[in-house]
Amino acid sequence: MKITNKPTKPKGRLGVLMPGIGAVATTFIAGVESVRRNLAKPYGSLTQMGTVRLGKRTENRIPAIKDLVPLAELDDLVFGGWDIFEDNSYEAALKAGVLDKELLDQVKPFLEGIRPMKAVFDQKYVKKLSGNWVKEGESWYDLAEQLIEDIDSFKKQHGCDRLVMVWCASTEIFMKPSQIHQELASFEKGLKKRSPEIAPSMVYAYASISAGVPFANGAPNLTTDVPALIELAREKNVPIAGKDFKTGQTLMKTILAPGLKARLLGLNGWFSTNILGNRDGEVLDDPESFKTKEESKLSVLEYILQPQLYPELYDDFYHKVRINYYPPRGDNKEGWDNLDIFGWLGYPMQIKIDFLCRDSILAAPIVLDLALFMDLAQRLGMRGIQEWLSFYFKSPMHAPELYPEHDLFIQLMKLKNTLRYIQGEDLITHLGQEYYD
Ligand SMILES: NC(=O)c1ccc[n+]([C@@H]2O[C@H](COP(=O)([O-])OP(=O)(O)OC[C@H]3O[C@@H](n4cnc5c(N)ncnc54)[C@H](O)[C@@H]3O)[C@@H](O)[C@H]2O)c1
Q1: Report field, pTM of the whole predicted structure over 0.90
Q2: Tally of domains in the chain
Q3: Among 16, 31, 90, 223, which is disulfide-ready with 201 (CB 3.0 to 4.6 Å)?
């Protein structure tokens, strides 16, 4: 990927726009404000707490990521977004029930000031939701133009120098790329005809990219993962990334599976089930939205374990993923995994995991990192798919001739090497021969 501009310290405010002011978005916004006021720490965020080793191990040069590359400061972030419900972000955060009321009350006036703009929505694409805070327009194209107006007026109103958009809205129904998505011209015709093959998330993505605003997709929807929008991103010199924040059970899978493969331990089956009771869980109770999520979750093991290279270990392993909507748990998901593995001489063993996780607590720092890194990419002139940000996604977008990289450790190495590359530092191979000459 070409870097056309030199990395320099950004000036002015960065606006973070989010379609979907729900659990993830409000946990992110309230979290950043709490960190700015020293009420809490940004655990889980690479941009705030991560380091990168530079040069030889003997040099002892290990700067913080935020000191290595010129990222926007937390104090320079402003927030906005769209939702189909009119609730301000304090009310939405209370309903989401992720953060304690005690913490939310300390940042209440700030959160109350963040009110969603009217959404582009059609219930056909998210069956379990209906809301009335929705824009009206003849065609998708009209609606995209209204979104571009929202983007422009947000930028002016908040005195922003730059913007990024991160999709934090509900998971849409499963869609496959079709003819209309192959070229920008046919996609734009489809927008004008309100084609059913275009989902609202694509309208936001189209508006964002057309307005020169980087777009990251936190849900598994197809959205920008189609040639027409990739073409638009390249044409407009805009970075795009996706799909589906890597949190919870899939994060665990991409931590464990590389370890099993490294030790050549075989796999007979991996059964994953979840209970969760937030709005996301309710949306995923619809089979068509669940199908989108299921596809995103299932592909991970196939790519990491490479059964084509290790047929004796990984051919025909049984992989099942279930999500059960169970309201009493709210956002505090419980995910169980049972792995049937085998080792030396074929002797069977089992691993059981019970992850009592908090979905949005894992997702919020990802939104922050993506906002800062996408803004960095934009300033450096890195256009199109940002594969180096695969670390954050369950189904990373990638060039058509490549397979996606899912192994969390390779993804982290790719990300850190990209940061070294941006700063003109040597890439790290971990060879280490030079210490023994
Ligand atoms: N929480 C996680 O760990 C996690 C991980 C991976 C992906 N995700 C994805 O992130 C998204 C957000 O998750 P959440 O837990 O915040 O869900 P949520 O239901 O709390 O919030 C989503 C919000 O989007 C709104 N919305 C739906 N369609 C919209 C549209 N077209 N325009 C504007 N707003 C719209 C809903 O009204 C809702 O307020 C979901 O798609 C989820 O699958 C979440």
Answers
A1: yes
A2: 2
A3: 223
